[in-house]
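notes to self, project folder thing:

trying the whole complex as one job this time. last attempt i did each chain seperately and stitching them together was a nightmare. two parts in total, labels are on each line so i dont mix them up again. if this works i'll redo the older ones the same way
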Amino acid sequence: MSPVLDISGLSVAYRAPGGDVRAVKHVSLTLNAGEVVGLCGESGSGKSTLAYGATRLLRPPAVVTGGSVRYGGRRVTAGGDPVDLLTMSHRELHQMRWREISIVFQSAMNALNPVLRVQDQLLDAIRAHLPLSRGQAREKAATLLDLVGIPRGRLRSYPHELSGGMRQRVMIAMALAADPEVVIMDEPTTALDVVVQRDILAQIVELKETLGFAVLFITHDLSLLLELADRIAVMYAGRLLETGSAQAIMREPAHPYTRGLLNSFPSLSGPRRELAGIPGSPPDLRDPGPGCPFIPRCGHAVAACGELDMSLAPVTSGLPPGPVSHLTACPIVATQVSQEGVLS
Amino acid sequence: MSEPIVGGLPASGLPVTGEPAADASAAPAVNADAEQVGEPAAVTSAAAARGPLIMEAVALNKVFQLGRGASLQAVRNVSFGLYQGAVVALVGESGSGKSTVAKLLAGQERPTSGQVMLRGKPADVRRGRAFRRYKATVQYVFQDPFSSLNPVHTVGYQLSRPVKLHQAGVRDVRAAVTALLEQVRLTPAGQYLAKYPHELSGGQRQRVSFARALAAQPAVLLADEPVSMLDVSIRLEMLNLLDDLRARLSLALLYITHDIASARYFADEVLVMYGGQLVERGPAEEVTQRPAHPYTQLLIASAPDPDNLGSALKGGSASQSRASQSRASQSRAGNVGPAPAGCPFSSRCPLADDKCRRENPALQPLSPARAAACWRLDAAVPPPVASPR
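result (full assembly):
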């Protein structure tokens, strides 16, 4: 099966007077149809820049400096070759947006226009991208609200009359308006409390099952992804450090950063265990050192780390790389894993 | 715990008429039906073992007047104590009233009824030297380090102001500020003095907020979601720092959070708040491992748990509880409007019966250190403690 979205060697830089800030460095990531891929990283790691770069939503001073983003949705390719989003004309892009790839933006709670009714905002999105009459569009808006479990009467509400969770659901409904194949969700639940968050996540999973879209789920909270995602990619300082199934990331984390993350959140079940966290602060992208960006915070760093090219390699060497193989950028600690099993 | 203070001060600014109010029923526009039923529980706080009682909330009520006769009871009959060298966690969702409780303790808001006690004395000062002393003793750390520091002043300047204000005898302000920065492990301190907030990361900014609170040499620190705006990888270090400061400076700490898992690790006692009132309290490990109140159980079931790989989210056995949770979240806590009669959680509670919708339960003791406010505790069987893999 060919991936529905294939990001390959993507690099993004922010042009700045003192030289480029390379926010995304040569990142490759695939998304298969109907799959949830979690992209996890702390603020400034480049996870949003990666998503917006891949969908050509970045504005100067941000520029995509390399790579390709191939989209292989079945309606577009009709069995043929995938199309490259980065070389498309604006007209073609307009055809792609919403109908093929849609985005639930970060702080979606505030992404609704406060002076327009929910209905008008849904209608705007629907009529801009679907050839529907006003009446049909209104009916479509109502069914979208049905989809996310909001009473139709709320169409006439203003955003401030809805709770945070409801506003978030409206945003998700809007993203699904044109039945896209890929939905990018950028921190969609960050401002919500845990009970509402869990409801929304369950709703996303349910909608994904019924409608069959693929999700790229961006968050800083790895613990969410362990429950939600099929595959997880861990990003740090513009690089992918590790990718693998949620299972593999949880049980056999190979990169010291991933391990640090897993050891950073308190668990509710099981015995109380000693939590280590990750010492130090996030890296300064303006002045990256050579080699692995995690060296200053890593407990395993050796001299060779300064010369790593940060390409991903299978954790268990000898296996051919496959679509779900467990890959890491750290050859030093990864070999310890395969020798000793799971490190504590 | 103390008796409710009868004849406490009438709240200023609010049109309380008649006798000074010691309970919510005397306050205007409070739904009398929602009055809690039953004797309040006599519970020994799990935090009391750490040190003497420093600060106490006694039957606090806060009613906000919203105009046109509408009112919102944000805090209802909340009592608890803060103890020297101990951490009490106040856990609940947005709108549950946790921040209002902190503001009442900090003196930013006046209680409609009830009393805040500091070292056994009622804290009803409003101005002058006594007020300044109170403010110095009880310090507040805000959630958002991006907006709580003044962007146009350097770190050194922002820390020198509270030092000058609250440490009257200090001659060498720069040395005092340097010591503060070292205390929150911003070292070498000299490097940070001339920096502006925008030059710092979120974690570093929050350390500056901690330092600013410590500049007043407080006995009580009210930390309102101090790590929720920070990256996961930094949160733990910040909580460890806070814990270290608590131990070294013998601070009484109120840790407000919606993350009950962090409360398990960090707090001595956990107070769970819902709809403006305490619904459960007890030692942190007991409350998180064997929650008694249905709301606490929902909260714990909702928390993302890495040890819970491939959980209810991916469908399967828990689908029924998922459905009820889904229904549960349709209604929101802290809605503006008349308080519903009965238990505030009854509209979301899977166990609610007629009595729950009619009468609001008071905290009932479960053990010397635990209490829960629920009529259906017999049915709310704590879920079995998950065993480690």
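what i see at first glance: Residues 1-33, 315-338, 384-389 of chain B have pLDDT under 50 and may be disordered.
need to look closer tmrw
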